[in-house]
Amino acid sequence: MVENFDEWFHDILEQADITDSRYPIKGMAVWRPYGFQIRKHSMNIIKKLLDKDHDEVLFPLLVPETELAKEGIHVKGFEDEVYWVTKGGKNDLNEHLALRPTSETAIYPMYSLWIRTHIDLPIKMYQIVNTFRYETKHTRPLIRVREITTFKEAHTAHATKEESDEQIQDFIEMYKEFFDDLGIPYLISKRPEWDKFPGSDYTMAFDVIMPNGKTLQIGTIHNLGQTFAKTFDITFEDKDGEHKYVYQTCAGVSDRVIASVIGIHGDDKGLRLPPKVSPKQVTIIPILFKKGKEEVLAKCGEIKETLENAGLRVSIDDRDIRPGKKFNDWELKGTPIKLELGPRDLQNNITIAMRRDEEEKIEIPLDESLANNIIELLDESSKSLSAQALAFQEEHVKFATDLDEVAELVESGNVVKFLWCGDEEVGHEIEEKTGYDVLGIQEEVSEGKCIASGKDAKYTALIAKTY
Ligand code: A5A
Ligand code: MG
């Protein structure tokens, strides 16, 4: 799998019924039922976190050209990626309409109407929508798509810069909680100037290391300062009666979150899903013989009901095929726990549990402790997936002290930490000499020399092979 991760990833999406890339538009795929469930449960986690202090809204997909063009730096960052609607039926449209590549230019003209005084602030809204980017780099399902089907974008406005900086921290904490729930470890860094979101003051990013050593940016948080406020005239009357521009932030995650759940936890047998997002948490596999068939099926039904009453998602695989085939199928689909029940188990009043994250078989008594035992197993399995993923990340972040070493370590599948003076030209030089991308800076340092310029180092930074 590690040897040929991209192929593994592509195959698993088809085999596990996640998406179907045969849809006849490049970069656009169909969510199939099993994938849709994973997506739904993942989005429910982030929605729940956002709903604590954000309002969910829904803006139109189309953005008038005049609005999109208003913020110069922003539009320059996206102009090569915008899809345009230029006709309505047979008529050429006077004003061309962009399919949103992201929604700043759709939302902020409305913020300008809605925000009047300091009482209206802060404003915190989010939507989960599809956005379109005519990506020119190699497209890959979920990872680099042209229709981002699952674009969660949050947009906030504040009275002061301090509050906007706090909002960035809040988003970081929120994303940590989100990714922790999915068992996904992450590297957080501040993107270098040349890689920040077009129009932002600064960008904080979450990256994960995929099994092949390439990093994937799975979430970004941007402090927009007052740039968009000035462009879209978003002002408020402060307590002192003065009219001021707001300070803004935005934050986004996408389909890539699902890609990382699949890629990071999966193994040679298929998916290994964290219980929180697995379509079914428990799959019961009856072992049926002609004799005693009804009794076994009846007991499976009882188990299902007991577990469902305890809040779990459970299914019985009663398809008329060999049990061995069912085991393989559910291994492929990554269901966290399989329960096997045959006539002899029924006699002994037990069921055999198998966790997807490990091979071991465990006997579980069919008594009043059943639901609690299963919940405990799910919890352990969730923790073990997280721990395995974290161990992988820790093994693959290495420190280097010269550029040759950087290149070697990245080539062999690592993310490399190094000391950097922070100068932009030096950053470009590091990227050119190694052939890899600087992800961003992490901590400030007061000792040591820059890996490339030999000047006093200001930061530790990360460099990697990226998607
Ligand atoms: N409005 C802000 C939030 C924004 O658009 N930020 S962003 O451009 O960085 O995109 C947010 C996230 O979407 C990125 O961190 C990345 O995880 C994801 N993303 C960007 N382009 C993508 C693409 N073509 N396919 C899948 N995910 C993408
Ligand atoms: Mg891009």
How do the strands and helices of this protein lay out in sequence?
Elements: H1 5-15, E1 19-20, E2 30-31, H2 33-51, E3 55-56, E4 62-64, H3 65-68, H4 72-78, E5 84-88, E6 91-99, H5 104-114, E7 123-132, E8 147-158, H6 161-181, E9 187-190, E10 202-209, E11 215-225, H7 227-232, E12 235-237, E13 243-245, E14 247-253, H8 256-265, E15 282-286, H9 293-309, E16 314-316, H10 323-333, E17 337-341, H11 343-348, E18 350-355, E19 361-365, H12 370-395, E20 397-399, H13 403-411, E21 415-420, H14 424-434, E22 437-444, E23 459-464
Parallel strand pairs: 3-7, 15-16, 15-17, 20-21
Antiparallel strand pairs: 1-2, 4-6, 5-6, 7-8, 8-14, 9-10, 10-11, 11-14, 12-13, 17-18, 18-19, 21-23, 22-23
Helix pairs in contact: 2-6
Bound molecules: '5'-O-(N-(L-alanyl)-sulfamoyl)adenosine (A5A) and magnesium ion (MG).
Bin the helical content. Answer: 25-40%
Overall pLDDT metric? 97
Bound ions, cofactors and other small molecules, one mention each = '5'-O-(N-(L-alanyl)-sulfamoyl)adenosine, magnesium ion
Uncertain stretches: none
Coarse morphology: globular
Main sheet: which strands, in order across?
Answer: 3-7-8-14-11-10-9
**Rounded Rg:** 25 Å
Biggest sheet record = 7 strands, mixed
Give the termini separation: 17 Å
